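Checklist before submission:
- one chain only
- standard amino acids only
- sequence pasted in full

Submission:
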Amino acid sequence: MAIWKQQATLDVVNGWSPNTMIAALGIRFTDIGDDYLRGTMPVEARTHQPYGLLHGGASVTLAETLGSAAAMLCVDADKEVAVGLDINANHLRGITKGIVTGTARPIHIGRSTHVWEIRIEDEHQRLICIARLTVAIVPRQVIAPPA
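Returned file contents:
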């Protein structure tokens, strides 16, 4: 049974990305299951650190993007928004090119906080990074709408 409270389609979640860091890094949402959200990010100049490896900050951006978007799909978007509160990431393997895929799955979905695990793998399903994101669920009026 699906955990989503909102219409969970790739068109909807990819529609949140224009003119954001998500778009700038080439992140795309690629799959939605009953209890997970998956997306990809290219490993290239935009996401490299100076030594040519995938930048840890890019991995964390992918992780927070997936976890926050998944959390948004689990709330009443007319009344609430999900915002990152804390993220922890362990970078386990370097990668210089290709595509990484992140999968966000819930550990805890509560009324005021969610905790999500995000696994980022390379094209050979080798674990590159594992992250845990805590998201605060806050009333929509606390967050100003985009201009």
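Reviewer check: The chain has a mean pLDDT of 94.
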